[in-house]
Structures are given as structure tokens and as C-alpha cells.
């Protein structure tokens, strides 16, 4: 263990070293400060120029105009909020730190591209945003100021080189046989803490958390339907798309896998109707199961027992994401649909058919749960092998049959398991437990639909990032059916998203997989190599998603506080925060966090790409040739993403 | 192997308890919220429910009410630009005709949001107008009221200052009183600042202590409010919040319930589109009453004014809806128009739609044709200006039976935000002044302050 930590530390030092050297060198190539005169045009929903590049210490003389309504040029890091009015050259420049201070009225705003202290060398990217509500997509109106030399970009690119070099060096020192024990590094949490075991097995803590989650969903419904229609101030919208999404993507999934499913309120009413009990199983049988169930309890169609329906629903949600975020009632309707659908399905199909085959949330958390620290598995395979009744899968008098249809004895992946904890209760041999395990240790992708889903969620992270954090206003025009009614562009956008997720990106991964096969001359089929290669996208996909949601929360944190204090926008002020001025949370730090996440994702993706093929009788040369094309694809993706987030 | 089971009876009871708790929460939470809101607003729970649930999405054809009875144009107003010349599209937020220097000739006090000042267009001698800035560095002044605030025999000016013309949630609004020294030199008193954007301020003795207090509408953005400010003397005030709703545009002070104290009427736009009355108990304690609420949350409420339109001895409410700042481009909607709320006593008001008028922003009453009933003037700042036939200024002729005939006054200048009647040349005929707020294109028919002098053609007809 200590050895592993030492190795990780030395790897980090090497990678940082690769980043630091160019980052220091580049400091000696700073141009003499000059002055720039820049006119910034504001419009719904963008700025022109959308990128301002200058050298450290340069003086920027900014003038402004608007092509439609009122806008502002809000640059928090430089304490500037210039309000731009139509048909007027003068702007009112407010202080971001204290917006109540009397504004300066001027035709030209002067700023010196310099940050205080050490930050002057570290901060290169700042986003300028709009702080005057100018329409339903106002929140996405922004551009960026890049101060050269871009230390973060150079550092990150150096780190990518370091990660790639480390990966290459690995082939010369790698033992190509990994331990056969799939639970290597797993720590049994039940054994370690009997109290934790008690809490998990008892139904009450889970039920209480579930009811709290249900309360949150109820508040979302109430506030989205009856609260303010300004999405940036609607608690329901913020709860869903800023807080919940952040917690799900950045905290719950990487740490605990599908832990959200443990407390998800969506299947609650369906379970209640099907089981006629909120807690303990009722005596009786239903078909092959040792519990009493109501409803038609039909089997889900075999053809649809895969990940395709989830991927399709996820794509539908993505297609309409801008509307979901901008119109609170649409969010409310989506939540109601997500409550009603599983309930109806529970009356028709057996167990949690919705969660297993349709839920777009599980479409996201399912694949990424394979990287998480938490896993549910059996304690002893021998006990499972001897167990013929399969209490975990078929139920017992102590617990319900697995709503996900899993036999724990055969379980080696976490993606299908909704962590409902039922098997910890139903197993009469007390042979199910929770493990803490190293990060990103599951590497197997089982089938085509799983591979496609993995590639799909990776693609969607890129789409979302470009759509909401890209500085290209034209991209936002493509999704703007709200006030611009660009249905033609929207059709093009939908076509691009669907084609990218279903054809283009899988095609690219397939191409690199085939190239690997050609270079390595191994015997596996193209499809098999494609399926295995796709799994390497998981860590980078997860970290890309986290990089996407971080600014979603950090930029909107003030609005979260405001909305909690006044959930309906009815003029309440429960916590005295209803009208606090808008500030972003650590805006200077965000590009560093995003870059760090992409680098971490690349590191684990390259590692897993290689790990996937260990124990398969491949020599170093073949392994290197097989994985090199996909590795280059991952590195290229990381380079583009780092440039996107830092420059 | 552990096979011990839980009794089905116990399990059933626990399930029932859980289901009951869920039902209680589902029903109880909204009830708590509604009750809280009712307590805060002074409405009944059923009024709150009606108010919350009776809002439709943005307007559609079904929201268009009333029919226009139109008639041909009569040229009875001669147009003349007064005040300073301009080179950029003017942004006039409000005008008030008043004889500020008390020389017997009507002048104009105005809010100029391009120059961020309050100025005075003095008429002296008759027919000659000269503009002087009274107070500058007032960012986006929205409304002026001229009144002898300190009872010293000269006219002071109450100024509502937004802090920024366009939507902004920051606390940048202020209330300013320009104190007249008797020689029309004005001393600026900032009596409230760092508050949500202030859109209107009116003076009146609200607590019955003999001095002037203030009623203040703070549009804000998401966090607007309505307050009254108790005059403590020496230009010091104590604020009392009346309501925390965003979007108040206008406040009016009037004894609406005829109990010898002053009440406050407010128009709250944004997503509320409601008119409230705050009934005074005579000591500055106010009880809110909802007088009118549109079910269309995009109704676009733009202004109210008080007038005894039906001349039955009580004040009715003239009301325009035509605000279109939210739209892209900011152009009016077909459900915009002019209406009045007929005061039927006991705080009961009956809604009457008068006409459709896209982008309507202001309506005022005056007997323009000298037939002893009150006619109406209305202006539009948000009509479809790309269409050269769009009207910016109309009058509504009262046929004596409270039926109104819509007649064109002009299409040029466009973007008229504000209008006020007054006899500027002392000829006994009502003239009108208008102010232009040119916030968006086209900028081909500009006007800042326009005086429309009545040539008598209407009376001759």
C-alpha cells in the first residue's frame, strides 16, 4: 500500500515537473506592455470579440455598444461591471465588490491586464459575462480575456506530455500479469465498521434519506410550477441543474457510484404499488421470486434489455437541455414525468424496469459507477457458489428480490447495481457487503450497448461544455428556440448531437481500435477491441463531466443562496440572503480545477486503456502497438479540452 | 442462516405511517407556504391560491380583449420640439408640466436618462422654452413629482432614481429630493440610497403628523419592493416596507376609501401584473388589498394614473399594459392596450377594456374637446416601429357614455414613453407634452420633448 502511494506520488512529481519547466521558461518571454483599443459589441447572447487576448501588463481601453437591449460587461476579477445601454456610448461602471457604490459614467473603460501578487503569473483566463437580464439565455452570454503568457495552458500541456511519457515508460517496466484477484485492494466496510453495517442493513436510515430526496423533488416541482419564471432565480431550476447535478457528478458518483439510486425517490411509488409495503417484504411468491408482488409483473422485452433506451433518453434530454434550464416549468414537467413513468411501469413490468432500462440518470451514473471507490460485492465467492436459492436475486423473507435482477455471486461490475442494499438484507448467509476500493479499477466493458453508452456520455460532456461554456455565441443560437425561435438551427444542432454521440465518436473510437489491431496484428475481432477500448474513455469522461459542472455551480452559487431565501421569488427572505449581490465563487481558480480534472482523467484513462489488455497473453510490443492509437486519441482529446478550458 | 421475519401486521402499519407522513408533507408544505404568503401580503389564502394558479403563460390571441372603435384623424395638435437639441436617440423617462417659477406659464420638469439629469424647461416669455439642468449625476432618473414638500411656499421636486435603466438586481436605486431655495436653485437631498431600483416616488402626509412622507415604488428586478418613508424632519426618514414584490412601477397617493387619510395605490408589473391598494389606518399602518390582477403573466403593465374618469366623485384608475423590455426585439404584443378600473366604492373596482394599443405605456385624462367629459391620451413606446403605420400617440374620444373612439394623433416621433396634458399657452384648450424613450431601433423618427399645442380645430368640429 505504502509502495503504491509512493509510486503515485513520484508519478505526480514527474508530471508536475514536466508542467513546471515550460511554465517557468515561458515567463521569460513576456512582451513589453502595449495599449489596445477594443470595442466590445454586446448582443443576445454573446460578445464581440468573444475572446480578448493581450499580454501581461497591457492596457486595454474598452468601449461598448449593444445591438439590442441592455447588457453588461461583468469582469469580476478586475472589479468591473460596465452597464451598456442601447444607442448610447457612455457606460455606467459599477464595482463588482460593492455594486451599491456610485458608478463611474464614462465612454471608455481602462483596465490593466494584471492580477495582484503571485496571481499575476498564475491567472491567465477570466470570463466576462452579462449581469443585466437580457433574455432567457442570458446566463450563457460570455466571452473570455486571455492574458499571455498563459501559464496554466503551458503547464497543462507540459503535464500532458509528462503523463504520456510516463505511460510510454510503463511499457518498459510493466509486469503484464496483474493479480487475478478481482478484489485486490478492496476493503470490507461492513467488517471494518459493524455500526455502518447496521445502518446500511436497517431500512430506516435509507428511508429517511429517500424521504428527504423526495422532499427535494417536491420542492423542485412546486417552485418550478409556482415560483418565478426567471430560471436563474428559481429554486427548482437551481436545485436540479446546479446543486443536484453538481453533487451527482462531482461528488456522489466518483466517490460512491450509484449511491444516488439508493435514495432516489423516482421508483418509490412504483415500488410501493408493486410491493404493497414501504419497508419489509410480505410473505408470498410471485413467479420465480420469494416475495409477494402486485401488478402485471411482465418481463421487459428481451430486445430492449440493453443500454440503448437509456442512451436515447439521455440524448433527448440533452437535445432539450437549454429549454430545461431556461424554462422552470419544463424542468417541473420533466421531473413529474420521471416520477410518473416509473410508477406506471411498475404496474406493468417486473421490478424497477424504468431504472434498469430507461432512466437517463442511471444511463449516466451506471457507466461511471465503475470508477467509483464504493462497490457492493459478495464476501465469499465460495458461499455464493454453494447457494442455490439465490436469495439476493430472488428474495427471501428478510429482503426483497433484487430490483435490478442481479445475482451477487455473478457480479463483477457495478454499473447495473442500483445499491438499493436489498441483497445485504435478503442474503440469509450474510454474504453481501460494501467495499471501499481503489479508484477506477473496473475496466471491463461487457457489450456493444455498454460501449456505446460510455462513448455517448463522453460525447455529451463535450457537447455540453461547448454549448454552455464555449465562447462562441453562434453555438447558442443553434439551441435558441426560446426567444429567437431558431427551429431550423435547432434541427441542425439536434442532428449534430445525435450524429456525434451515435456515429461520429463511436466511429472515431472504432477507427483507432482497428488501427491498434492492424499495428499489433492481434487476433481479436474489431468489435471486441472496440468494446474494450471504449472503457478507457470512462475516467476522462467522468472528469470532463466534473469539469463541466464545476462552473455551473460556482458561477451560480449566489443565486442558490438567494433562491433558498426566497424559493418562489415571492419576495421572501428566510435567511437574509435573498438580495445579496452576485459574486462568482473563486473564478480565478476554476480553469486550474478544470485543467487538473482533465489531466487526472487522462492519467486514469491511459492507465485503464493498458490495464484492459493485461492478462491476455500480449507481449509488451503488441500491447504498446494495440493501445497506442487510442492513447494518442485520448492525449489529443485532452490537449483540446485543456486548450478549451484554459485558453 | 438467519430466517427471522417481521410480522406482516407491523409492516403494514409502518407502511401506512410512512404513506401518511408523505401525504401530510405533500398537502402540508404548500399550505404552509400559502399561509405564510397570505400573512405577509395581507391577502386571504384563497386569494393567494388564485393569484398563484391563475397565471397563464405568455399571452396569446385569447388574451386580446375588447374591440377598437376607431375614427378618422383630426389634426388639432400642432407639434413643436422644445428643450435641448440632441444628437443621439433621446431617453426621456418622465415629464411633468408645472409652473415651477410660478410666473403663470407652464414649464416642464423632466428626467433625461441619456444625460442622467433632471432638468427644467422654462417657458419665459410665453412660447419660448429654455432648458436648464437642475440636478445631474442622477443615474437613470425614472420619475419626478413637483410638490411643495417642506411647505415653504415654493415647489420642490421628488426624484425616483433607478440607478440603471435596464434590469438589474443590485441595490443601486435612490430617492432624491431637490429642495427649492425659493429662487429655483435646488439643493439635492439623497433621502434613501443603495436600495432596489426606484421607479416612482410620491409625497403625502401618510401618518397624519402634518409633514410630508413618501411612498416609493422600487422596481428592482427580482427583488423589488414597495415602501413608505416616514418623515422624521431635517431630511431624515424612516422606511417601512409595505410589500416585497418585484416590479412596482407606479405608486399613487390618494384617499381611496374616503376616510380622511391617505392610502397608497401601486402597480406591480414583472410576473405579477397586479394593482394593490394599501389602506391606511390613519397612523401609517397599511393593510394591502389586491384590486386587480391579470392572469397573463406577460401582460406588460406599464403605468397607472388616477382620475375621476366617469366623474362620479371618486377616483378611478387609468391603466396601460404595453411594456416589452423583456422581448427580443423589445416590441409590443397584440394584447397590449388601455383600460380603466371603475371605482365602485368599498375598494371594489370594475375592469373596463378601452382599446388595444400595442406597446402602450402611459394614459392621461383631459377634456380635450371641451364637451365636459374626460377623453384620454395614450402613448406607445413599444409599437412595431418597423411598420411605418404604427401609431405612437393616440387620443380616445369619450362619447359621453364612457365609450371611447380611438383616433390617431401621430406616428412620428416613435417610442413615446410618457405624456402629460396641460394648458401651455393659457388659451383654455388642453395641450399635451410627450417624451421619447428611444432604447432600440429604428432611430429614424426621433423626438425628445414634444409640445403638442391645441389649435382649436377639435372644438370647432
Write the layout of secondary structure elements.
The complex is a heterodimer of chains A (about 650) and B (about 450).
Chain A: H1 2-25, E1 35-43, E2 46-48, E3 51-55, E4 59-66, E5 71-75, E6 80-84, E7 91-94, E8 104-106, E9 109-112, H2 119-122, E10 125-129, E11 142-148, H3 151-173, E12 187-188, H4 189-192, H5 194-201, H6 203-226, H7 235-256, H8 259-263, H9 268-275, H10 308-319, H11 321-326, H12 328-348, H13 353-358, H14 360-368, E13 374-378, H15 381-386, H16 391-394, H17 422-426, E14 432-436, H18 448-469, H19 473-479, H20 487-520, H21 526-534, H22 537-565, H23 590-611, H24 620-646
Chain B: H1 8-41, H2 45-53, E1 70-71, E2 77-82, E3 92-98, E4 107-112, E5 117-123, E6 129-135, E7 141-147, E8 156-161, E9 173-180, E10 186-195, E11 198-204, E12 213-218, E13 225-233, E14 236-243, E15 248-254, E16 263-268, E17 274-280, E18 286-293, E19 301-307, E20 316-321, E21 337-343, E22 349-356, E23 360-366, E24 375-380, E25 393-398, E26 404-410, E27 416-422, E28 431-436, E29 449-454, H3 457-460
Parallel strand pairs in B: 1-26
Antiparallel strand pairs in B: 2-29, 3-4, 4-5, 5-6, 7-8, 8-9, 9-10, 11-12, 12-13, 13-14, 15-16, 16-17, 17-18, 19-20, 20-21, 21-22, 23-24, 24-25, 25-26, 27-28, 28-29
Write structural notes for this entry.
The complex is a heterodimer of chains A (647) and B (461). Chain A is an alpha+beta fold and 647 residues long. Helices cover 53% and strands 11% of the residues of chain A. In chain A, strands 2-1-4-9 form a four-stranded mixed sheet, with no helix packed on it. In chain A, strands 5-6-7-8 form a four-stranded antiparallel sheet, with no helix packed on it. In chain A, strands 3-11-10 form a three-stranded mixed sheet, with no helix packed on it. The mean pLDDT of chain A is 93. The model of chain B is unreliable at 58-63 (pLDDT under 50). In chain B, the strands form seven sheets. Chain B has a five-stranded mixed sheet, with no helix packed on it. A four-stranded antiparallel sheet of chain B has the order 2-29-28-27, with no helix packed on it. Chain B has helices at 8-41, 45-53, 457-460; strands spanning 70-71, 77-82, 92-98, 107-112, 117-123, 129-135, 141-147, 156-161, 173-180, 186-195, 198-204, 213-218, 225-233, 236-243, 248-254, 263-268, 274-280, 286-293, 301-307, 316-321, 337-343, 349-356, 360-366, 375-380, 393-398, 404-410, 416-422, 431-436, 449-454. Chain B has 461 residues and is mostly beta strands. Classes of the chains: A alpha+beta (647), B mainly beta (461). At the A-B interface, helix 6 of A face helix 1 of B.
Amino acid at each position: 500500500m505504502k509502495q503504491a502511494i509512493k509510486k503515485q506520488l513520484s508519478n505526480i512529481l514527474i508530471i508536475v515537473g514536466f508542467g513546471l519547466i515550460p511554465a517557468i521558461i515561458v515567463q521569460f518571454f513576456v512582451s513589453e506592455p502595449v495599449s489596445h483599443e477594443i470595442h466590445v459589441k454586446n448582443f443576445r447572447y454573446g460578445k464581440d470579440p468573444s475572446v480578448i487576448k493581450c499580454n501581461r501588463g497591457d492596457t486595454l481601453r474598452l468601449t461598448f455598444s449593444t445591438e439590442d437591449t441592455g447588457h453588461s460587461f461583468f469582469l469580476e476579477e478586475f472589479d468591473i461591471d460596465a452597464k451598456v445601454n442601447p444607442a448610447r456610448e457612455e457606460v455606467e461602471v459599477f464595482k463588482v465588490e460593492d455594486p451599491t457604490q456610485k458608478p463611474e459614467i464614462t465612454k471608455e473603460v481602462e483596465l490593466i491586464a494584471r492580477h495582484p501578487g503571485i496571481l499575476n503569473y498564475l491567472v491567465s483566463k477570466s470570463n466576462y459575462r452579462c449581469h443585466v437580464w437580457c433574455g432567457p439565455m442570458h446566463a450563457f452570454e460570455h466571452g473570455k480575456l486571455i492574458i499571455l503568457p498563459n501559464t496554466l495552458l503551458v503547464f497543462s500541456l507540459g503535464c500532458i506530455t509528462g503523463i504520456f511519457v510516463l505511460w510510454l515508460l510503463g511499457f518498459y517496466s510493466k509486469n503484464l500479469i496483474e493479480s487475478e484477484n478481482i478484489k485486490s485492494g478492496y476493503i470490507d466496510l461492513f467488517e471494518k465498521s459493524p455500526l455502518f453495517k447496521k445502518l446500511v442493513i436497517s431500512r430506516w436510515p435509507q428511508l429517511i434519506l429517500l424521504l428527504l430526496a423526495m422532499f427535494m423533488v417536491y420542492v423542485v416541482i412546486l417552485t418550478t410550477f409556482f415560483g418565478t419564471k426567471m430560471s436563474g432565480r428559481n429554486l427548482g431550476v437551481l436545485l436540479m441543474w446546479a446543486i443536484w447535478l453538481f453533487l451527482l457528478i462531482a461528488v456522489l458518483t466518483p466517490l460512491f457510484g450509484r449511491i444516488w439510486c439508493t435514495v432516489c425517490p423516482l421508483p418509490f411509488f412504483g415500488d410501493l404499488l408493486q410491493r404493497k409495503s414501504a419497508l419489509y417484504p410480505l410473505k408470498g411468491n410471485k413467479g420465480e421470486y420469494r416475495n409477494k408482488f402486485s401488478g402485471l409483473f411482465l418481463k421487459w422485452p428481451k430486445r430492449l434489455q440493453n443500454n440503448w433506451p437509456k442512451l436515447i433518453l439521455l440524448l433527448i434530454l440533452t437535445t432539450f437541455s437549454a429549454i430545461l434550464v431556461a424554462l422552470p416549468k419544463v424542468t417541473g414537467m420533466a421531473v413529474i414525468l420521471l416520477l410518473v413513468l416509473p410508477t406506471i411501469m411498475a404496474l406493468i413490468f417486473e421490478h424497477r424496469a424504468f431504472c434498469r432500462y430507461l432512466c437517463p440518470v442511471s444511463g449516466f451514473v451506471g457507466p461511471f459507477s465503475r470508477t467509483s471507490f464504493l462497490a457492493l460485492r459478495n464476501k465469499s465467492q465460495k458461499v455464493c457458489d454453494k447457494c442455490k436459492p439465490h436469495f439476493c436475486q430472488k428474495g427471501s423473507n428478510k429482503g426483497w428480490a433484487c430490483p435490478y435482477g442481479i445475482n451477487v455471486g455473478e457480479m463483477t461490475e457495478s454499473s447495473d447495481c442500483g445499491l438499493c442494499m436489498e441483497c445485504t438484507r435478503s442474503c440469509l448467509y450474510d454474504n453481501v457487503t460494501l467495499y471501499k476500493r481503489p479508484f477506477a479499477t473496473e475496466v471491463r466493458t461487457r457489450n456493444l450497448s455498454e460501449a456505446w453508452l460510455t462513448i455517448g456520455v463522453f460525447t455529451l460532456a463535450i457537447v455540453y461544455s461547448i454549448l454552455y461554456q464555449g465562447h462562441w455565441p453562434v453555438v447558442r443560437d443553434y439551441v435558441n428556440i426560446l426567444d429567437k425561435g431558431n427551429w431550423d438551427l435547432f434541427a441542425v444542432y439536434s442532428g449534430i448531437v445525435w450524429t456525434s454521440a451515435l456515429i461520429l465518436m463511436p466511429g472515431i473510437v472504432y477507427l483507432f481500435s482497428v488501427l491498434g489491431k492492424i499495428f499489433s496484428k492481434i487476433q481479436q475481432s474489431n468489435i471486441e477491441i472496440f468494446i474494450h477500448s471504449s472503457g478507457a474513455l470512462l475516467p476522462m469522461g467522468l472528469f470532463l463531466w466534473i469539469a463541466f459542472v464545476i462552473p455551473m455551480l460556482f458561477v451560480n452559487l449566489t443565486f442558490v443562496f438567494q433562491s433558498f431565501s426566497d424559493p418562489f421569488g415571492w419576495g421572501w427572505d428566510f435567511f437574509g440572503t435573498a438580495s445579496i449581490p452576485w459574486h462568482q465563487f473563486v473564478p480565478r481558480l476554476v480553469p486550474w480545477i478544470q485543467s487538473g480534472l482533465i489531466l487526472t482523467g487522462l492519467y486514469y484513462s491511459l492507465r485503464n486503456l493498458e490495464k484492459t489488455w493485461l492478462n491476455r497473453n500480449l507481449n509488451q510490443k503488441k500491447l504498446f502497438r494495440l493501445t497506442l492509437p487510442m492513447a494518442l486519441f485520448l492525449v489529443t482529446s485532452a490537449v483540446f479540452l485543456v486548450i478549451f478550458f484554459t485558453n | 442462516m438467519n430466517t427471522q421475519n417481521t410480522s406482516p401486521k407491523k409492516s403494514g402499519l409502518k407502511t401506512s405511517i410512512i404513506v401518511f407522513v408523505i401525504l401530510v408533507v405533500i398537502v402540508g408544505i404548500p399550505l404552509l407556504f400559502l399561509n405564510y404568503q397570505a400573512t405577509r401580503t395581507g391577502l386571504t389564502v384563497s386569494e393567494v391560491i388564485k393569484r398563484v394558479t391563475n397565471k397563464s403563460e405568455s399571452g396569446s390571441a385569447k388574451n386580446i380583449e375588447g374591440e377598437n372603435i376607431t375614427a378618422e384623424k383630426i389634426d388639432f395638435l400642432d407639434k413643436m420640439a422644445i428643450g435641448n437639441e440632441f444628437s443621439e436617440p433621446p431617453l426621456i423617462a418622465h415629464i411633468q408640466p408645472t409652473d415651477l417659477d410660478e410666473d403663470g406659464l407652464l414649464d416642464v420638469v423632466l428626467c433625461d436618462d441619456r444625460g442622467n439629469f433632471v432638468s427644467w424647461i422654462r417657458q419665459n416669455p410665453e412660447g419660448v422654452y429654455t432648458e436648464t439642468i437642475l440636478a445631474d449625476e442622477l443615474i437613470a432618473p425614472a420619475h419626478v413629482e413637483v410638490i411643495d414638500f417642506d411647505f415653504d411656499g415654493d415647489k420642490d421636486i421628488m426624484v425616483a432614481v433607478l440607478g440603471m435603466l435596464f434590469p438589474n438586481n443590485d441595490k443601486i436605486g435612490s430617492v432624491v429630493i431637490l429642495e427649492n431655495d425659493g429662487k429655483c436653485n435646488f439643493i439635492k437631498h439623497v433621502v434613501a440610497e443603495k436600495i432596489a431600483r426606484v421607479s416612482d416616488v410620491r409625497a403625502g402626509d401618510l401618518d397624519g403628523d402634518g409633514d410630508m412622507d413618501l411612498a416609493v415604488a422600487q422596481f428592482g428586478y427580482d427583488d423589488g419592493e414597495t415602501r413608505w418613508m416616514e418623515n422624521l424632519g431635517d431630511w431624515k426618514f424612516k422606511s417601512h416596507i409595505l410589500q416585497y414584490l418585484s416590479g412596482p412601477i407606479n405608486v399613487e397617493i390618494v384617499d381611496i376609501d374616503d376616510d380622511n387619510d391617505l392610502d397608497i395605490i401601486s402597480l406591480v408589473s414583472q410576473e405579477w401584473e397586479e394593482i394593490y391598494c394599501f389602506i391606511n389606518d390613519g397612523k401609517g399602518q397599511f393593510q394591502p388589498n389586491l384590486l386587480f390582477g391579470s392572469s397573463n403573466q406577460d401582460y406588460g403593465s406599464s403605468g397607472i394614473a388616477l382620475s375621476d374618469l366617469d366623474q362620479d366623485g371618486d377616483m378611478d384608475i387609468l391603466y396601460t399594459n404595453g411594456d416589452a423590455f423583456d422581448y427580443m426585439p423589445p416590441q409590443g404584443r397584440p394584447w397590449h392596450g388601455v383600460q380603466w378600473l371603475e371605482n365602485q366604492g368599498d375598494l371594489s373596482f370594475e375592469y373596463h377594456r378601452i382599446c388595444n394599443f400595442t406597446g402602450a405605456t402611459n394614459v392621461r385624462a383631459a377634456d380635450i374637446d371641451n364637451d365636459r367629459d374626460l377623453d384620454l391620451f395614450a402613448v406607445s413606446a413599444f409599437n412595431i416601429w418597423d411598420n411605418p403605420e404604427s401609431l405612437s400617440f393616440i387620443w380616445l374620444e369619450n362619447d359621453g357614455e364612457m365609450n371611447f373612439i380611438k383616433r390617431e394623433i401621430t406616428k412620428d416621433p416613435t417610442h413615446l414613453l410618457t405624456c402629460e396634458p396641460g394648458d401651455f399657452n393659457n388659451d383654455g384648450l388642453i395641450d399635451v407634452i410627450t417624451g421619447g424613450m428611444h432604447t432600440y431601433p429604428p432611430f429614424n423618427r426621433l423626438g425628445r420633448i414634444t409640445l403638442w399645442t391645441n389649435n382649436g380645430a377639435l372644438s370647432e368640429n
